[in-house]
Specification:
Helix content: 40-55%
Order of helices and strands: EEEHEHEHHEH
Oligomer: single chain
Number of helices: 5
Largest sheet: 6 strands, mixed
Structural class: alpha/beta
Length: 160
């Protein structure tokens, strides 16, 4: 089985997926925008997909700052909620019971590189493509964490 974690974002180069293949190799794809993801998804493999869907969470965003700053934060939250909900709906339509969504709160805290390495050792994931462990690769670590949720969701599929 292939496991895919998706960390969608509206910002340029912020939409990242992690693919764990049946040989336990881990790869990352960063899309320049949502339309690049759409180009990919039409040829996407049968897999178990987990999307971080911020639309599931009734966020109260950071209210600090001037009115224009607060308005900008609000717009960004709304854009990310919309793009993550749209991502999940597309995958649900295409893959049915193989598509799952979780809220940012359910996903839990963000991991650093050391935490990712610890979990990858536990799951025997030794080959990482397109990942250097940089601080700037937080979206990739988030996508990896979501792909691990896909492994757990496989048990739910088998019960259906």
């Amino acid at each position: 089985m292939i496991y895919i974690g998706i960390d969608p974002a509206f910002r340029k180069n912020g939409f990242v997926i992690c693919i764990i293949n049946d040989q336990r190799e881990v790869d990352f794809i960063t899309f320049k925008d949502f339309t690049a993801f759409l180009d990919w998804v039409w040829t996407a493999p049968l897999a178990i997909y987990t999307v971080e869907n911020s639309y599931l969470q009734d966020l109260t965003f950071d209210m600090r700052g001037s009115k224009p700053e607060i308005a900008k934060k609000s717009r960004h939250v709304g854009m990310n909620q919309a793009i993550s909900e749209a991502t999940f709906r597309i995958l649900k339509k295409m893959f049915g019971t193989y598509a799952f969504e979780i809220s940012p709160k359910a996903k839990g805290e963000k991991w650093n590189d050391n935490q990712l390495r610890l979990y990858s050792k536990h799951f025997n994931h030794t080959v990482f493509l397109n990942y250097k462990g940089l601080i700037s690769e937080q979206d990739k670590r988030d996508a990896y964490k979501l792909a691990l949720f896909s492994i757990d969701f496989e048990k739910k599929i088998k019960k259906i």
